[in-house]
Specification:
The structure is a homodimer. Chain A is mostly helical. Chain A contains 23 helices and 6 strands. Chains A and B meet through helix 2, helix 12, helix 13, helix 15 and helix 16 of A and helix 2, helix 12, helix 13, helix 15 and helix 16 of B.
Chain lengths: 478, 478
């Protein structure tokens, strides 16, 4: 019941002392994942072989699934063919396929050589479905019942055949032509009278998905319809698999992780963070940094082209960072809200104008708040001396004083905060439009990373800034 | 089976024509959520009252849960007390509590007046649990069985009592003193022989949580142990509730959304995006922009203090944007990986040094790649004229040519790309350390938003940049 019930040391000790009974007892009272994590830290993989030899296969099948990839590899290399075959036969096919996807090719060959012919065929088929599709996460071990059975017959059939199935909580109901006609929840069956006919108690309002569907789509269906399991149909509309809600829990988490890292400009990891080595990690991070660096050239270009304006009015330079940061931050906020809203299907590309209208109003209110705050803050900065500006006359170099200095400082402050307001409007416009545009083309909106939006907004903010500066200072000072 | 089976217009038509049989049939074949969405768009809420009057309560209870908050409010205002009481009695308490949390106070009072006394007591209790804790998402309608029953007796008891329970797929087993001693999966019960004793077939390796536990923690337990449902214990270790995996699916999604928006500097929304109005949305966005604006002052300060250096070497200015962007982007990458890894418990604060060591090596490899690429790119920019730099002598103003010009451009390029390398190291250091630090203090690491890290890294990058520039140009040009 408590994680502290098991530790690597304790387990190793029991194995060294050959205390088979105590080890078996641990499997009764400690969740398998906790035992697996203890086993992952074994110094000597032969300890693990010992466990697989002396513990019932109904436990070790789960244990194998929960081990880390490293440990699995070591274990397979150490075991004899017959020991391996033993473990493999007791595993669910979908778990086995997941394992195989992460193993090196030579071990995959060895595994495939050691499973029964039927299982091998199923595995090969499942391995061929594209990653992240319904086909790749479904199991083929599901239960079907004929709609003409009585509740009592159904229960007897489940008792006979259900043990090797992934779930018996959702049962698929077919007609005599083997077409899917409904689903049956086990609880409805339990509550039914013995002679009730399945077709009278099954759900006819079931939903299905297809093998090629994206796993995120499947997750959205299961969530929306609150399903325990969903039927997977092939292109001929035949029932070929099943996906359960607990597979989906992992998918939801994976997809969220993928969206988050993509949006931060990290290419999706093939494995978990800890299992990705340093060099591979760098390869996931560096390319986007380079792309963004090249895109950032436009900002540099603008600053370079307006070098004369900037050296004539060096006070403009310190505010460049604030403008860029705020624009980027505002863009990142909207981009994130859009990408997430699209991912959880709260809205779609068809809602673009509705959402844009909302975001532009949000941008205006946000922009005005920030603008007023910023105008006061910038004045404060200049008066306190955080940013030095005495408004010295451009030609004579004589510092301004009193009312004239105030006007000069106020102009600067209004110029920068006005740019902020416009920048926020641009940022929220770009942040709304780009993810929506990408989604409209059926691509993943998370491709639009926040840094990408930032880079675009930077360019716009700088252009607005220098444009406004030129107008203001030509009018006031010129 | 298909969403197209139902539309608002069609449903309204049927209601106007009083076609009760057809309406009932729709509830047989169309998933409730689809019907609820069609009902949300009704012009006239009395149509909805008609449905609640003529469709079986086993369907309308679900329908009520799935309606939007707006529609629920309208409906409650329109219905008589007895109609309302009817709907409410058939609802699961946890759904009802969720509804009440979103309703205005006067309607809550009306709802509470119209449920049975026992239900009201339970609701009041549940409403008092802090939001986002196990207590606030659990249901109290769970099934307990005595460990001494036989399988057959257990099934009979389930048939008698199970219908009003949230789930019968996971059943809690108690001893004669009413202490929790195990859990029983319904499938194990189905497969058991009629006279087997529950205590022999139940799981003893169950996990539990407590009412005060954060819902994210509960989600992590359910995921880790692949549970259908988890027992919730009160402070005296007594079983008081149950949380099922489908409640957790929503939690996982909510928590991911919250983390993502927090990290983008948006305060967590109380409702969904679409249900949050423009002004409230602006209030979620503006504060962080202001805070970051104030923090950004440090960057402005640095640029302002080194005004003389920058006006002497205006070529340094255009690169400021690239330095800031790249540092911010690299920091955002690491921050996101850390926040996510901590959220899904792939690692914890105790792994800090291990992770930091990894990230610093990633930073070095990433930094070197970006640095080499950037050095070449900057040279290219200057030779192509994207960024104008003729290396004119500071005093005489005579442009450099040939080898001297190349050396000058190379120095600039190496200076900037060197700063990039150091900036990336700092960014990954800050991006690793801050979320870990926050997690170590048991606070939500997503509080460390990427923009926050960016702002810190900006300051460091600028200091490095101007520091290096001073050294390089004092040596080479000085």
């Amino acid at each position: 019941m408590e994680n502290e019930l098991i530790s690597t040391e304790k387990l190793e000790q029991l194995i060294i002392e050959r205390k088979v009974k105590e080890i078996r007892n641990i499997f009764e009272v400690v969740p398998t994942i906790d035992i697996a994590e203890a086993c992952d830290d074994f110094e000597d993989v032969s300890h693990l072989v010992f466990i697989f030899k002396f513990v019932k296969s109904e436990y070790t099948a789960d244990l194998f699934t929960e081990l880390s990839n490293d440990t699995k590899e070591k274990l397979i290399q150490t075991m004899s063919d017959s020991e391996l075959a033993n473990i493999l036969e007791s595993q669910f096919t979908d778990d086995l396929v997941d394992d195989l996807e992460d193993l090196p090719a030579n071990l995959v060959t060895r595994v495939l050589r050691n499973v029964s012919k039927e299982k091998r065929e199923v595995i090969n088929k499942l391995l061929n479905y594209k990653e992240n599709t319904a086909g790749s996460i479904m199991t083929t071990e599901f239960l079907v019942l004929l709609e003409s059975l009585t509740a009592d017959e159904a229960i007897r059939k489940i008792r006979r055949e259900g043990k090797t199935k992934e779930t018996i909580y959702t049962i698929f109901i077919i007609d005599s032509k083997r077409n899917l006609v409904g689903t049956l929840d086990l609880d409805d069956l339990i509550f039914a009278k013995a002679d009730e006919i399945i077709s009278d108690i099954m759900n006819r309002d079931y939903v299905t998905t297809t093998i090629g569907a994206d796993q995120e789509e499947v997750a959205n269906l299961i969530k929306r319809y609150d399903l325990n399991a969903i039927a997977v149909l092939n292109n001929e509309n035949r029932l070929i698999g099943l996906i359960t809600v607990d597979d989906i829990v992992d998918v939801i988490e994976q997809e969220a992780t993928e969206d988050m890292t993509k949006m931060a400009g990290v290419a999706p990891l093939d494995n978990s963070y800890l299992e990705t080595n340093v060099f591979r990690m760098a390869l996931k991070c560096a390319p986007w940094l380079m792309v963004l660096l090249v895109l950032g050239t436009f900002s540099s270009m603008i600053l370079s082209k307006f070098e004369t304006t900037l050296s004539a009015l060096p006070i403009l330079v310190p505010f460049v960072t604030v403008l860029m940061d705020t624009g980027g931050n505002a863009g990142g906020q909207t981009t994130t809200l859009m990408v997430r809203g699209l991912a959880v299907q709260e809205f779609g590309p068809k809602d673009y104008f509705k959402i844009l209208w909302k975001e532009m109003r949000v941008a205006l209110v946000t922009g005005l708040m920030v603008c007023v705050f910023a105008a006061l803050w910038f004045l404060f900065e200049m008066y306190v001396g955080i940013i030095g500006f005495d408004g010295a006359d451009l030609n004579s170099g004589v510092p301004l004083v009193g009312g004239e200095l105030f006007v000069a400082r106020l102009s600067i402050s209004l110029l920068v905060s006005g740019t902020l307001l416009l920048g926020i409007l641009v940022a929220k416009f770009v942040g709304t439009s780009l993810p929506m545009l990408v989604a409209a083309f059926k691509k993943d909106p998370a491709l639009i990373s926040s840094p990408f939006v930032t880079t675009i907004v930077d360019v716009c903010s700088l252009l607005i800034y220098i444009g406004l500066a030129t107008i203001v200072f030509n009018t006031i000072l010129g």
